[in-house]
Amino acid sequence: ASPDPKTIEAGLKKCPGRRPLIYAADPGNLSQMSAAAKAYKTPLALVGNGLKPFPTLEELDKLSQEASGLGIEEIVLAPGPKNLHESLNDLTQIRRLSLKRNYRPFGFPVIMFIKNTDKYQTVIDSCTFIAKYAGIIVLDSIEEDVLLPIITMRQNIYTDPQKPVTVEPKLYKFGSPDQTSPIMVTTNFSLTFYTVSPEIEASGHPAYLLVTDSEGMSVLTAWAAEKF
User: Fold this and answer.
1) Are 211 and 168 in contact (CB under 8 A)?
2) Are residues 79 and 54 in the same domain?
3) Is the pLDDT of residue 53 over 70?
């Protein structure tokens, strides 16, 4: 990350064979940054007017069109840090224009940087942008109590509520079982598996657990449906 094209190119020379995101191009360095992105076949982030705290959507629109005109196909839009309301409005407008009006200059992923001294606000902003509609979020914190709710939110958003959460159907080993060890059977419904497996581990006896493919149904449901 640097506004200096020479610094960016020096960094790209240090990682041959990789395709890092160049951050970032603005109206003052677009041609040089685009040349580096094309030479090293890397994506390029656009930040609008680098002289301002954050770009307007009009500036991003113009810069995206100019970058595309220079032959850049892999673009990441960076609306910039604003308050939560303004950022959410920008993200919504970008997504709405790209999908409903098929407006190509905004048809690229969006990156958002989360900068808050309040960890609770960091979580709120991050979860909001994951849902509406950032493709990448960058945090300045790696504390567990910040990351855990964000990761949980991300997993829940992209989980099909009509598809049961399952585990892989196979034979699981606990301890070092042999031919005399007991074999227990259950379904691949995750809640059932994570209820049964701790009990086996707590027993301290080597055992097998055969998990069958019941399409994610619980034991009684799968039995009633003749899938277990």
Assistant:
1) yes
2) yes
3) no
